[in-house]
Amino acid sequence: MLAHQINSCHMIRKLAAYTLTLLFLLPLFGKAQIKLQKRSLLNGRIELLVPDYFKPMTAEATAVKYPNPGKRPDLVLTDANAEVNILITATPQRIQPGQMGQYKDFMISSLKQTHPDATWLNNGVKTINGKNVGYFKLITPAVDQKVFVYYFFTNMDGKVLLFTFNCTEALLPKWKQTADTIMASLVVN
User: H-type helices in the chain, by residue range?
Assistant: First the structure.
């Protein structure tokens, strides 16, 4: 009888250990990996890792979402619901490789004036695949929710090449690491 009770106690401890392990790992299973694929964009001028299911936004949808033709991105890659987007804009703004920090500071200063209620996360300049890349991240209120916006930029042919990654704040835990991976994959040809 004593041996049976000891064996039962041992089984209960094992079951409790397995249960605790499962409860610890369960949140990790909920964060499914987002599969990225390398894409050649802007007529082969850039390469970028992008979620494999992202598609270019139609010209009609882009015109509705970005009504100002002068500020419309060259390309918008998006998920099926247009909740997560990557915008790419080849601007006419001239820049030299060593000016990324100054441009970043200028952009942040300008956006702080137009979005005083934004929450600023971090910013900097990194070397990615041989190019200086400036970046900054913020959370800004939208009409009915907050939006995470991640700007990164470099030079292409002496002009600013601007990328914007955005998603709702609610989706940020799922996308934060992927957004960094997308930026780190940038290659400008």
Answer: 2-30, 59-65, 100-114, 172-184
- C-alpha 189/C-alpha 182 separation (Å) is 17
Residue whose structure tokens are 């299911």: 53
Sheet with 36-41, edge to edge strand ranges? 36-41, 46-51, 187-188
Interatomic CA distance for residues 179 and 112, integer angstroms: 22
List, in order, residues 6 or more apart from 81 with CB less than 8 Å away. Answer: none
pLDDT in tens, 144-181: 899 999 999 999 999 999 999 999 999 999 999 999 99
Q: Distances from the Cα of 29 to the Cαs of 3, 26, 167, in angstroms?
A: 38, 5, 21
Closest CA to 180 of 172, 170, 168, 188: 172
What is the per-residue pLDDT across 32-82, written as a single tens digit (0 to 9) for each? 569 999 999 999 999 999 999 999 999 999 999 888 888 899 999 999 999
* 38 three-state secondary structure: strand
Contact of 163 with 183, CB cutoff 8 Å: yes
Residue 161: which of 69, 71, 89 has the closest Cα? Answer: 89
